[in-house]
Write a structure and sequence with these properties.
110 residues; alpha+beta; Alpha-Beta Plaits; 5-stranded mixed sheet; 2 helices; globular; Peptidase_Prp; cysteine-type peptidase activity; protease
C-alpha cells in the first residue's frame, strides 16, 4: 500500500509530505496507482520549483518506494500562498485516487 503522510502546522499549512510503499495494484511498470501518485506528487514539486521559484528539500529512495518533500519555512507571503495552493491541489488529486483505489493508497494528516 502507498502511504501519504501530510504534515501541517498550526495554521493548517502543509509543511512537508512523505510518500512511502508500493500500491501493488499491478506488476511493476504497469501499476496504475503508483503511476498516478508519482505523476501527481512529482508534478506538484516540479510546479513549485518552476512556478514559485522555490526549491523544496527533497529525498527519494532508490527503489521508488519513498519520496519526501520539505517546504522551506522562510518563503515570502505571496510565494508561500502559491506553494500552498499547489500542495492543496495535489491533496485533492491524491484524495481522488484514494476514493477510487482506497485499498492501495492511504492519506493521513498530522
Amino acid at each position: 500500500m502507498v502511504k501519504v503522510v501530510l504534515s501541517r502546522n498550526e495554521a493548517g499549512h502543509i509543511t512537508s509530505f512523505e510518500i512511502s510503499g508500493h500500491a501493488e495494484f499491478a506488476e511493476h511498470g504497469k501499476d496504475l496507482v503508483c503511476a498516478a501518485v508519482t505523476a501527481v506528487s512529482f508534478g506538484t514539486v516540479n510546479a513549485i520549483i518552476s512556478l514559485c521559484d522555490t526549491m523544496p528539500g527533497l529525498e527519494q529512495g532508490e527503489d521508488g518506494g519513498y519520496f519526501n518533500c520539505l517546504i522551506p519555512e522562510d518563503l515570502e507571503e505571496d510565494v508561500a500562498r502559491n506553494v500552498q495552493l499547489l500542495l492543496e491541489g495535489m491533496v485533492v488529486s491524491l484524495e481522488t485516487i484514494e476514493r477510487d483505489y482506497g485499498q492501495y493508497i492511504n492519506i493521513v494528516s498530522q
